[in-house]
């Protein structure tokens, strides 16, 4: 029988610890066939030292226990290896033309992201290096989401860049020792016993009083009996001029850019669904514990934001309403979403995601690591494997906004999602115009 350390016990020196509630949900998703990998590709131009890259990758794995973790067969515990030697294949693409290479890389990345991990045997990461020429390489990193989140991916590459640069300059590593995920879990367990956490729980249970709405957007294809994960993307550039108006609107009403953009998204969903009660989810880093900002581990979770319209408000009144909604959500963001789902005990529907069917994020781009004598850039991810019907992602690019709808291909056609994004832009325009008329 596996010796599992409970979340409430000290286990700083133990190598087997219980999964967090969020990890348990990830484990269940992986058992149900949901894609649970994250693949990131880093293009490296210049005189790359493969030996130093190998040693630097090994050091990142050595620094972070989460990367040396495997999962118990029954999804209750995680085991931390004291050491794990890495390896990665070097794949030559130098014999292909540029068009052939790009197409093969695109297909390879898609296949790689869909390739499952063995959670029991591990490792829960894969590294691959493509060589296009002596001066041009592509590093591909794939990690299972049960041990990392988006914040962790940023930490991974920042550590890699610092370690590679120091090693290539022949100087000692300057990185401080990070917090380990097991330490984070222990501190989180202490927070769970606090009065503050009880207050958070009370807030969310009150915010999720029954009846809970089920979002019914108009769809192009009948919903299957079991939820699928066939995804596609459509994008739209929000022009520089509209972006300026959105920022002006945000400043005028003491709102953040995130609040304004989410308000427009909520208004669109109300209009399309013809429902006056909806939920939208958005991610939080889950790293309020001091020291966790430099840690690799699965900490992030969704915050469910409920929008209820008793009557038809003006655009400005609705923005003010959503602002207060979001401020309240931020105040109680430390309460784990997985625990809320457990507390709500919702009836299981294999055709739909629980509680939140649509999500939103104003993405902060991954910081490009600095690597000595190399030009470095990230390739755009091909598909975002989210489990919701629609995920709307906004990112700032060249003083404009790129809005990308990642959607379930078995529910929506591409033309529908193009119209969806156009309607979103129209609503943002209407909000800005209303503010100018006041």
TrEMBL record:
SUPFAM superfamilies: CoA-dependent acyltransferases. GO terms for molecular function: catalytic activity; phosphopantetheine binding. GO terms for cellular component: cytosol. Residues 14-433 form the Condensation domain. It comes from the Bacteria. InterPro entries: CAT-like_dom_sf (IPR023213), Condensation_dom (IPR001242). GO terms for biological process: amino acid activation for nonribosomal peptide biosynthetic process; lipid biosynthetic process; secondary metabolite biosynthetic process. Pfam families: Condensation (PF00668). This is Condensation domain-containing protein.
């Amino acid at each position: 029988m596996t010796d599992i350390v409970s979340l409430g016990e000290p286990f700083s020196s133990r190598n087997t610890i219980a999964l967090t509630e969020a990890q348990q949900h990830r484990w269940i998703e992986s058992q149900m066939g949901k894609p649970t990998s994250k693949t990131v590709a880093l293009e490296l131009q210049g005189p790359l030292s493969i030996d130093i890259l190998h040693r630097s990758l090994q050091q990142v794995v050595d620094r972070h226990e989460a990367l040396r973790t495997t999962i118990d067969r029954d999804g209750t515990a995680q085991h931390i290896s004291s050491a794990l030697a890495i390896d990665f294949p070097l794949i030559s693409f130098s014999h292909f033309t540029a068009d052939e290479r790009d197409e093969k890389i695109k297909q390879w990345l898609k296949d790689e992201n869909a390739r499952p991990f063995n959670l029991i045997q591990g490792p829960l990461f894969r590294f691959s290096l493509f060589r296009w020429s002596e001066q041009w390489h592509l590093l591909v990193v794939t990690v299972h989401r049960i041990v990392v989140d988006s914040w962790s991916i940023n930490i991974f590459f920042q550590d890699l860049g610092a370690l590679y640069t120091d090693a290539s300059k022949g100087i000692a590593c300057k990185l401080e020792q990070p917090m380990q995920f097991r330490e984070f879990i222990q501190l989180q367990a202490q927070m769970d016993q606090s009065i503050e956490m009880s207050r958070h729980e009370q807030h969310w249970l009150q915010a999720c009083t029954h009846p809970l709405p089920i979002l019914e957007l108009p769809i192009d294809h009948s919903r299957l009996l079991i939820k699928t994960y066939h995804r596609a993307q459509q994008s739209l550039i929000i022009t520089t001029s509209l972006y300026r108006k959105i920022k002006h609107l945000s400043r005028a009403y003491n709102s953040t850019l995130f609040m304004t953009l989410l308000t427009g998204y909520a208004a669109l969903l109300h209009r399309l669904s013809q429902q006056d009660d909806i939920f939208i989810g958005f991610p939080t880093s889950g790293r309020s514990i001091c020291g966790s900002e430099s840690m690799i581990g699965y900490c992030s979770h969704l915050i469910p934001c409920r929008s209820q319209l008793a009557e038809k408000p003006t655009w400005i009144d609705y923005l003010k309403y959503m602002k207060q909604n979001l401020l309240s959500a931020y105040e109680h963001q430390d309460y784990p979403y997985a625990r809320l789902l457990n507390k709500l005990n919702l009836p299981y529907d294999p055709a739909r995601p629980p509680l939140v069917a649509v999500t939103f994020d104003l993405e902060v781009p991954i910081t490009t690591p600095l690597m000595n004598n190399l030009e470095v850039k990230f390739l755009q991810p091909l598909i975002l494997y989210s489990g919701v019907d629609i995920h709307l992602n906004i990112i700032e690019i060249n003083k404009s906004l790129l809005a990308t709808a990642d959607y379930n291909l078995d529910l929506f056609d591409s033309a529908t999602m193009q119209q969806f994004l156009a309607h979103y832009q129209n609503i943002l325009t209407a909000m800005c115009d209303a503010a100018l008329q006041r």
